Amino acid sequence: MSDGKRPPSFYVLTAVFALFVLFLYGPTITIGILSFQGPDGGLTFPMRGVSLHWFDQLFQQQAVGDIWGSFRRSFVLGMMVMVTTVVLSVMGGLAFRRRFVGSTVLFYIIIASLVIPSILVSLGVGLLFSQILGWEVHWATSGYGAQLTWTLPFGLLIMFAVFNRFDPSYEEAARDQGANPWQVFRHIVLPLIAPMLIGVALFGFTLSYDEFARTLMTAGSRNTLPLEIYGMTTNVTTPVIYALGTLTTIFSFLVIGTFLVIAVVAQRRRARLASDAGKGMV
After folding, report:
1. Are 207 and 147 in contact (CB under 8 A)?
2. Omega cis (within 30) before 181
3. Residue 204's CB: how many other CB atoms inside 10 A?
4. What is the phi/psi pair of residue 37, to 5°?
């Protein structure tokens, strides 16, 4: 507006957005605050003192449950799912750059797992491993397979979008210079799509790290961290569970921050390579 004043709708939308952010992060902030209570603290307000007592309890032998064991399992499983999701998503994205017989049907089969109830997928994978294949239901096998049904469709959809906007002239320029298919992919395609691959990796790890429903029937006798936290809600009556939630939230933000830094570095390298390729084409 000419007088520099903002319209009333601006303040209404700002208030709605602020309420949305409060609704989104309010529970996490509340848990973080309650985790810093004193030794006599409970699970609700008002707070009873301020200390790091409950964080210390997480590292004690008498802490309830296998917290650190479940964390290690979730981390290892997340890394396995992340690597597999990235590799298969890139292969699928490359394959779907050209239409082939049955490509449409295959596409809908891939994304169908997103609309199937997660608990049914978990139950089906668990039965497949235990009854049909005769394998023991274990977090590193059946849990791994169940979580891939959740992460792979997201990874593939991202790569489909990436390759739909990919400029093939860079590949043509490399082939004109005598590069073979592997060299084209290694030196041209891979550096250009690297920032998106980081996004796929982040999706794969975070979706696996906090997945509950698809792991419920496939983790076997050893819980992942989400299952361990769920089990703790039935027998833990102290803020130690809040302390665990605070630490896992901090870890999640550290993971996201690390991936964002890597993405920025990869984006700058991508821009530099694109600039060099453009100069070479000229």
Report:
1. yes
2. no
3. 28
4. -75, 165
B/e letters for 236-270, b = 16+ CB within 10 Å, e = fewer, are: bebbbbbbbbbebbeeeeebeeebeebbeebeeeb
Q: How far is CA 66 from the centre of its chain?
A: 23
CA distance 5 to 261: 38
Could you give the CA distance from residue 27 to residue 32 in angstroms, rounded to a whole number? 9
154, 89 contact by CB (below 8 A): no
Amino acid at site 93: G
Task: Please state which architecture CATH assigns to domain 65-281.
Answer: Orthogonal Bundle (1.10)
Q: Binning pLDDT at 50, 70 and 90, where does residue 153 land?
A: very high
Type and span of the H or E element at 88: helix 67-95
Question: Omega into 195 within 30° of 0, i.e. cis?
Answer: no
Is 70 in contact with 230 (CB distance < 8 Å)?
no
Give the predicted TM-score (pTM) of the model: 0.82
Q: Sign of torsion, CA 216 222 224 227?
A: positive
Cβ atoms of 240 and 64 closer than 8 Å: yes
Calpha distance 72→104 (Å, rounded): 39
Contact 114, 152 (CB under 8 A): no
Question: Where are the chain's structural domains?
Answer: 65-281
Token pair of 10 as six digits? 């601006």
Is the model more confident about 78 or about 271?
A: 78
